[in-house]
Amino acid sequence: MATILQRSFRRKPVSSMAAETGADSGGGELARSIGLFQLAMIGVGATIGTGIFFVLTEAVPAAGPAVVWSFVIAGVVAGLTAVCYAELASAVPVSGSSYSYAYATLGEVVAMGVAACLLLEYGVSSAAVAVGWSEYLNQLLGNLFGVAIPDVLSNSPEEGGIINLPAIVLVALCALLLIRGASESAAVNATMVLIKLAVLVLFIVVGISGWNTDNFADFAPFGVTGITGAAGIIFFSYIGLDAVSTAGEEVRNPRRTMPLAILIALATVTVVYVLVALVAVAAQPAAEFEGQEAGLSAILESVTGQAWPGTLIAAGAVISIFSVTLVTIYGQTRILFAIGRDGMLPRFFSTVNPRTRTPVNNTIVVAIAVALLAGLLPINFLAEMTSIGTLVAFTVVSVGVIILRRTAPDLPRGFKVPGYPVVPILSILGCIWIIVGLRTITILVFLIWVAVVLVWYYAYGIRHSRLGEPGTQVEDRA
C-alpha cells in the first residue's frame, strides 16, 4: 500500500489529461468554441485595465516617478514566465492552468498548493478590479449626470462606507454572462477589449500634451526598495497571462492556439502599460497620485481643462474593467472545475450544465465569494494578496518547464522556451525577487491561506483523488 508521502507526490500523466479532455481529438466535456483572436483578447482583457486604470494610485506613492521602471520590471518578469506558460500550455492543453501543470510535473500535494495560489489570485483579483470599477463608475456618473453613488454604498467599511454595492452588481452581471456560455462571454470580452485599447491610445495621444519633465525630478525617492515594492503591487494585473491557460479545454486546436495567444497578449499588454504609465507620470506630479480615484480621467481633465476626455476615459474604464472581472471569474471557475474533476473537491464543482456546457454550480459559488470580498475590503490589500498568489503560481510554472523537459522530453510541444534553461531560471529568480519586496503581513496571510488548503487536501482531497482509484494510471515521485 502506498505511503502518505507517495500518495502526496503522485503525478497525473499528461497522456491521461489529454485523453480525458480531448485535447488532440477536439472533444471534451466543455465546448471547444474559442479561437485565437478571442483567446488572445481573454489575455489582454484580463490584464489591461486591471493595473493601468487604477493601480497607479497605489504604485506611484510607493516608487515615485520610477514607477515606470516598476512596470518594466513586472513586464520583464511576466514575459520570462509567459514563454514558460506558452510551452506548458502547448504540451498540457487542459483547464486548470498552473494547477494542472503542477499536477503533471511536481505531484498532487504541490498541485493543491498551487491551487491555493490560483484561487487566491483569481478570487481576490476579481474583487480588486470590481472595487476599481466602482470608482470609475462614480466618476462617469458625476461627469454625465452630476450625481454619484453615496459613499456609504460605494466604499468598504474600512474606507468609511457600509458596502461597495456597484462592485457586487458587477460581479453578479459577470456571473450571469458566464453561466450563459463560454463562447458568448469570449465574444463580449473581445468587443470590450477593443474599446479599452482605443481609450488608452486616446489617453496617450492627449496626455502627452501635458508632458512636464519637472515631474521626473525626484525620480526614485524610495530607491530600489520602492521600485520593487511597486512592481509587486502592479504584478497582480499580469494574471491575464495565466487566464489564457485556464481556457485549455474550450479552445480549438489548443496546442497551437494557446502559446500564440499568450505571446500576443504579452506583447500588447507590456507596450500599452509602459506607454500609459510614462505619460501619466509625466503629466502629473507623483504626490497627486496618492488617494486619487479614477486617476487617468483626472489626469486628462487637468491636462485639457475640459471634462470630455476624462468622461471618455471613465466610460472606457467602466467597460474595460468589466472585461477584467469577467475573465478572472471565468478563470477561477475553470480551475475549480479541474480540481473537482480530479476528485479533490466535491463533484458539485465539476458538474456541467448539459445545455450551456458551463460549470454553473461553481460559477455561483465563486460569484458569492468574490462579491463579499469586493463589497467589504479595500483595494490596496486585495491587490497585494493577488500579487503573491500570481508570483508563486508563475514560479511553479517555470519550475514545471524544467521538470517536464526531463521527464517527458518527447511530449508534443507546439512551442518551446527559447534560451532554455536560462529563461525559466531567470523567471524563477525574478518572481522570488518581487515576492521578497512584499509586505510581511501579505506573506503571512498568504502562508496561512495555503496551510488551510493543505489541511483540506489531507482531510479530504488525498482520500477522494481519482488517482487513488483502482486501475488509474499514476506516475510516482516518492
In short:
The chain is mainly alpha-helical and 478 residues long. 68% of the residues lie in helices and 0% in strands.
Q: How would you characterize this protein structure?
A:
- With 478 residues, this protein is mainly α.
- It is built from 18 helices and no strands.
Topology:
Elements: H1 4-8, H2 14-21, H3 36-47, H4 56-63, H5 67-91, H6 97-105, H7 108-145, H8 165-180, H9 182-207, H10 223-235, H11 239-245, H12 254-283, H13 295-304, H14 308-341, H15 360-376, H16 379-407, H17 422-436, H18 440-464
Helix pairs in contact: 3-9, 3-11, 3-12, 3-14, 4-10, 5-10, 5-12, 5-16, 5-17, 6-7, 6-16, 7-8, 7-14, 7-15, 7-16, 7-18, 8-14, 8-15, 9-12, 9-14, 10-16, 11-12, 11-14, 13-14, 14-15, 16-17, 16-18
Name the poorly predicted regions.
none
Query: What percentage of residues falls in helices of 4 or more residues?
Result: 55-70%
Report the order of strands and helices: HHHHHHHHHHHHHHHHHH
What is the CA–CA distance across the termini?
13 Å
Give me the count of strands.
Answer: 0
Features:
478 residues, mainly alpha, 18 helices, 68% helix, 0% strand
